Amino acid sequence: MVSAPPTPAGPPGGPGRTSDEPRGLELDLSPLNGMEFRCRPDCGLCCFATPAADRSEQRALLTILPSLPLLDGPGEYRRIALQGEGGACSVLHGLRCTAHGARPFPCRSYPLSVHIGDRIQATVVLSCPGLVLAGDAQGAPAAPAPIGLDDEIASVLQELGRPLAQSSVIRAARDYARAIDRLDAEARWVDPMSLLDERATLVDRALRSAAQLDPLPDLEEGLDALPVTFDPELGRLALGGSEAGSAVVYPLDERGGTPAPLGEYAIPDLPRLDQQATALLRWYLLYASGRDLLIGQAAHDLLDGGDGDLEDALAREIEGMRNAVVTRAALLRSVHGDPSGILDRSAVDAGIRATDAEFIDRPSIGGTL
């Protein structure tokens, strides 16, 4: 546990506290233990986004690229526009960042994702192909400390030292506390630490239950709304559904535009997983359920009309991730000419990478850095 730069601390408390003031926040880096990262220069998947830049970052970017198109964002932030629908950030050319030295915080910290609730927790976005998935049956880290993430961790610590980020942290922590108080008043809040103790039970329950097909959004929602992934053979892909119930796979170009589909595929019946594939999926679900973010997303589901208490909502989140990973693993196996059979470890690896970023981006109580 690393202490974050000091923020005004309210009275200590937990579920049911009545003060809107957040308690002292700490930065939890433990989910990074055992992670190994090496950026793939042939990928560029993380650049198919509109990163937010504050005023100082905007000035630095415009010094290098005076005509850089910027979009409105929250507060003083503005977002770097895409080159076209489904395309990459306008700074990317030839899969190279043309303003690398001035890239904003979301780019400098990737593949880290930082959630703010009762604490500030850093995890990794497992869609990044530069990350190695450990995936033993127990979910144990492959190494005691992260490898290759020193610069990204330093960027998070530097960001937390800035007054603008500290203000955002305080607001997010207050929003988180208010949401907890509301759920606690409805008797639907459960201590998250007790849920972490039970997460293996929830994961194993999800693995034993029958998986359901996870529908994909169709192109009418826009190419930017489709889940994306990086395939070592086919490059950057967007996965969409069709009215006929099949799946359509689109290759992505950094210049944008709606490409001709790579193909249309019948989504196969959900296959069985071999032992190694099951172990990897279990590891992923354990890792994802250990994120504070998932607790926040489960709480958001309850506040948005979901049934039951926090444990019920967390179980739904875990089952939803299981369904998405297995469906997308089977789809990507079909793209490579194998529409049936038992999924192996490499297929589930591809399914995780086609799923994790989308689930991280879902609404949550609290906030992100």
Q: Tell me the radius of gyration.
A: 21 Å
User: What is the share of helical residues?
Assistant: 25-40%
The end-to-end span amounts to: 17 Å
How many distinct helices?
A: 10
Describe the structure.
The protein has 369 residues and is of the alpha+beta class. It has a domain at 2-37 and 111-212 and 272-368. Helix content is 36%, strand content 13%. The protein has helices at 55-64, 105-109, 150-160, 163-185, 192-208, 275-289, 292-303, 310-335, 345-353, 356-360, and strands at residues 2-3, 26-28, 52-53, 70-72, 78-80, 92-93, 96-97, 112-116, 120-124, 228-231, 235-241, 247-251, 263-265, 367-368. It has a 5-stranded mixed beta sheet with strand order 1-2-9-8-14, covered by helices on one side. The protein is globular. Residues 3-22 have low confidence and may be disordered.
Topology:
Elements: E1 2-3, E2 26-28, E3 52-53, H1 55-64, E4 70-72, E5 78-80, E6 92-93, E7 96-97, H2 105-109, E8 112-116, E9 120-124, H3 150-160, H4 163-185, H5 192-208, E10 228-231, E11 235-241, E12 247-251, E13 263-265, H6 275-289, H7 292-303, H8 310-335, H9 345-353, H10 356-360, E14 367-368
Parallel strand pairs: 2-9
Antiparallel strand pairs: 1-2, 3-5, 4-5, 6-7, 8-9, 8-14, 10-11, 11-12, 12-13
Helix pairs in contact: 4-7, 5-6, 5-8, 6-8, 6-9, 7-8, 8-9
List keywords for this structure.
36% helix; alpha+beta; four-stranded antiparallel beta sheet; single chain; five-stranded mixed beta sheet; disordered N terminus; globular; 369 residues; 14 strands; 10 helices
